[in-house]
């Protein structure tokens, strides 16, 4: 029995890769939280512009009552933590998000003199760069398994359940906070807040999904074998094919599918057009590719890594 207990304890001990992954995650959480503090102190608080959410709520409370914005955000985040605990990973989510909240919300009030208060008086620049910096910080936090709480938790829950992009969910959920901002700071600043919110969502999506550097190619052709050989010879990539029937012509055709890098897409389309002018090709976007087949003996082109494949986490 003692031997079995010892074996179970040893099995639960984290391995070196797990420890490294944990340290990397918390480094990302820390960097992301610092980016949020910088965005809030430099771009949002001095100008009364925020992209909705708990950050916007903190601005409104501070303007109305003089209550510290970081403390207002911390109080508002407590019930959201409960929702995240129930829906987004239990204790793992709770510890990581609480870690981010502690750095972000407390840092907003405790570190007022570290970051510059006003770096520009151009509100459009403030909204754009505020959205970029806060979005990059939020994306790093998401990738490390946490959130900045607030409407980010609600957005993440909705995204996981519906598949909608984070940027769209932010726009829907944060509308009420933007209305409060308009009533408090004026509608012009509320409109700049919409710009900041939109850019924030785009930056979050970029960090989460990476650049779209992979192209998916689907070809409908009456000469699938010949066209597959052309793709093999031209691109050195594997091709998957299956049979289909044209519903208008009632004729049998072949469908071919492969992926190439963005820089190779035009060359592949030209090769397909030259080999089979009557074929029908569709080029789509993808964010990453894994596995696949390269024809043996053929030189492999240099792969383009996506941010999802890069060894950052």
Task: Give a description of the structure.
This protein has helices at residues 2-12, 16-44, 53-65, 69-87, 90-110, 123-143, 151-162, 166-173, 175-185, 187-209, 224-235, 265-275, and strands at 214-221, 240-245, 252-261, 280-286. The chain is an alpha+beta fold. It folds into two domains: 16-209, no CATH class; 214-286, Alpha-Beta Plaits, CATH 3.30.70. The chain has a four-stranded antiparallel sheet, covered by helices on one side. A hairpin with a 6-residue loop joins β2 and β3. The longest helix has 29 residues, at 16-44. The chain starts with a helix and ends in a 27-residue tail after the last strand. The model is unreliable at 1-11 and 295-313 (pLDDT under 50).
Q: How would you concisely characterize the structure shown here?
A:
With 313 residues, the protein is α+β, with helices and mostly antiparallel strands. The chain has twelve helices and four strands.
| Number of helices, where a helix is a run of at least 4 consecutive DSSP H or I residues | 12
Radius of gyration: 25 Å
Provide the residue-averaged pLDDT.
78
Q: What overall form do the CA principal axes indicate?
A: elongated
Topology:
Elements: H1 2-12, H2 16-44, H3 53-65, H4 69-87, H5 90-110, H6 123-143, H7 151-162, H8 166-173, H9 175-185, H10 187-209, E1 214-221, H11 224-235, E2 240-245, E3 252-261, H12 265-275, E4 280-286
Antiparallel strand pairs: 1-3, 1-4, 2-3
Helix pairs in contact: 2-5, 2-6, 3-4, 3-9, 4-5, 4-7, 6-10, 7-8, 8-10, 9-10, 11-12
